[in-house]
């Protein structure tokens, strides 16, 4: 009997060892990037490979990526900064709760500089939500208008409403089912690298500045500026959402503005492309179509659509949180008691 048990015990041990070897072999065959928790066929497998190969992020250990771990605010903005090419911010980090030697110090300063975040506290350890990540990507893309996407849990007045619509329209993400987007759900590492992969690789949606080609002849004229601005009506019709939190970054001018100033800066880049600011003045008679006019007292900026003898016709963002067309402002209006005109005409 003892010999029989010995034979059975040896056979059982061999089978156990064989099963372990097969399990390890299966993991090594199907693992992606050397990570045992990222397998071929996982929806986040290709984004993980891209993120690691491009230096966006590493694994949490040599063998794990931890795709289901929660992603923090500091992590997503660091990933986004790296995906954007690790640009050097032009300012020191303004946040009280970010140490100078924190790994996310530069990304936090860059995010602030580009209008992605604001305030004096960064709260880097806060979990990143679905609303957060689509808002960061949308703002980095110039806060473009998007046809509303209907979700029961995304009200039209929400600060992230346009970001959600843009993200869905650009296939960055979809809803979570049953007519919901779940904006406050926290994001995992697997989800975040997937969102970034779709934005930066599949759709190239990260481009902030509008495309521009110089006029064929005669330089930039007021007629040309008017034509460009009128063409915006189809993209930003009356009532399009553009509130104080909506920002735009001009890479040419190294400026980021939000609200009305952000919309005017966006329009200015469409007209003048890579041309610099040539003058800032306060002479009403010298205002031209395409100039940005700033009411310093009311802290409101408009873009000039038409110049008349005693008035200007304007388009403006953040007018009751929306884009508003064809308001007439007269020379005698209070706005012109303390105003500046920014022009980029050569």
Explain what the structure shows:
The chain folds into 2 domains: 68-202, no CATH class; 222-343, endopeptidase fold (from Nostoc punctiforme), CATH 3.90.1720. The protein is an alpha+beta fold and 346 residues long. The chain is built from 9 helices and 10 strands. The protein is elongated. 34% of the residues lie in helices and 15% in strands. Helix 2 (45-53) packs across helix 7, helix 3 (73-83) runs parallel beside helix 5 and helix 5 packs across helix 6 (161-169). The chain has helices at 2-30, 45-53, 73-83, 105-113, 130-140, 161-169, 189-202, 222-231, 259-272; strands at residues 31-32, 35-39, 247-250, 255-258, 279-281, 292-295, 300-307, 311-319, 322-330, 339-343.
In round numbers, the mean pLDDT is 85
- The number of distinct structural domains comes to 2
Please state the structural category.
Answer: alpha+beta
How many E-type strands?
10
So how many helices?
9
Low-confidence stretches: 21-29, 205-209
Biggest beta-sheet profile? 6 strands, antiparallel
């Amino acid at each position: 009997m003892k010999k029989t048990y010995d034979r059975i015990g040896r056979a059982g041990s061999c089978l156990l060892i064989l099963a372990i070897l097969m399990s390890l072999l299966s993991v090594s065959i199907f693992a992606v990037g050397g990570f045992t928790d990222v397998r071929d066929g996982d929806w986040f497998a290709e984004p993980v490979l891209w993120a690691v190969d491009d230096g966006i992020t590493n694994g949490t250990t040599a063998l794990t990526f931890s795709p289901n771990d929660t992603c923090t605010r500091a992590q997503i903005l660091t990933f986004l900064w790296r995906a954007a090419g690790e640009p050097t911010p032009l300012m020191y980090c303004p946040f009280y709760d970010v140490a100078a030697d924190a790994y996310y110090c530069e990304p936090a300063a860059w995010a602030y500089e580009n209008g992605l975040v604001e305030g004096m506290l960064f709260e880097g350890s806060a979990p990143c939500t679905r609303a957060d990540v689509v808002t960061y990507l949308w703002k980095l893309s110039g806060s473009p208008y998007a046809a509303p996407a209907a979700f029961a849990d995304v009200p039209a007045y929400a600060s992230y409403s346009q970001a959600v619509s843009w993200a869905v329209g650009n296939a960055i993400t979809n809803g979570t089912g049953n007519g919901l987007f779940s904006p406050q759900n926290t994001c995992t590492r697997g989800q975040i690298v997937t969102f970034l992969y779709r934005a930066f690789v599949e759709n190239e949606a990260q481009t902030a500045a509008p495309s521009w080609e110089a006029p064929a002849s005669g330089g930039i004229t007021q007629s040309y500026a008017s034509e460009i601005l009128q063409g915006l009506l189809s993209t930003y019709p009356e009532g399009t959402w553009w509130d104080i939190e909506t920002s735009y970054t001009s890479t040419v001018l190294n400026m980021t503005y939000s609200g009305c100033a952000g919309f005017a800066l966006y329009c200015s880049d469409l007209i003048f492309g890579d041309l610099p600011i040539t003058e800032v003045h306060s002479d009403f008679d010298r205002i031209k179509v395409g100039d940005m006019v700033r009411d310093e007292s009311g802290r409101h900026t408009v873009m000039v659509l038409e110049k008349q003898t005693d008035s200007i016709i304007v388009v403006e963002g953040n007018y009751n949180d929306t884009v508003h067309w064809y308001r007439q402002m007269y020379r005698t209006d209070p706005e012109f008691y303390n105003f500046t005109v920014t022009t980029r005409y050569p």
